[in-house]
Amino acid sequence: MPTSDWPVGVAAVGSILRARTRDTQGNEVGTFTPDTRPTEDQVASLINTAVGDLASSVGADLPETLWAQAAVVASYKGAMLVELSYFPEQVATGRSPYEQLRALYLEALAALKLGLSSSAPGSAPGDPDAPVYAFPEASRLDTVLGRQGYVPPYSGGLFQ
Prior knowledge:
Blueprint: H1 10-16, H2 40-58, H3 67-86, H4 88-92, H5 98-118, H6 140-145
Helix pairs in contact: 1-3, 2-3, 3-5
């Protein structure tokens, strides 16, 4: 499934950056058009960059169940690129939603990667190929010293 199976439209980025969708008359139109700054074509180009970046991070061959989630992640990245490309002075001074978009992007990307790893072959619970973890039992010394283990007394020094 190529990235074209999880397309991101200009309207999706416009819905995230609604305040940036003002036309030449100052009207908020809700999506990018030839009369907005940036234009529809300019945002489409940034979206292609965002989709390519995402595909290089998670792969282009995603299961169909994750296409919508991948489109959301790419939309956030596209919105970030709009902010960086067309409003860098606002990003630099903290008057842009860039940092909030970045937080949403990282959260959505982590969720996509988690979904991708749980949909991978061999990831089902009880699968014989799934990794098995074992932790050692507590020793007698752990029992005597408590859950914290041995903590040396503070003797002063550099960290006061």
